[in-house]
Amino acid sequence: MQHRDIIVIRKVIDEIQIGMDMLGDTSLNEFLKDEKLKRAVSMTVINIGELIKNITPETSVPSQS
Questions:
Q1: Predicted TM-score of the model (pTM)
Q2: pLDDT tens digit sequence for 1-52
Q3: Cα 55 to the chain's mean position, in Å?
Q4: How far apart are CA 25 and CA 30, in angstroms?
């Protein structure tokens, strides 16, 4: 694993924590009614997706056949 992969993984973990902090103890019904919260959490998920693209192939989990 390259050093940059470690940095990316730490950033992913940070984004997950941000999403969890935003959600707190919000119920599903509350979440679905709160457009700002839905968009904020969606942006966090997008950030995670963009970060994951930067993980080197050597760090990727091999597919199970």
A1: 0.80
A2: 788 999 999 999 999 999 999 999 999 999 999 999 999 999 999 999 999 9
A3: 13
A4: 10
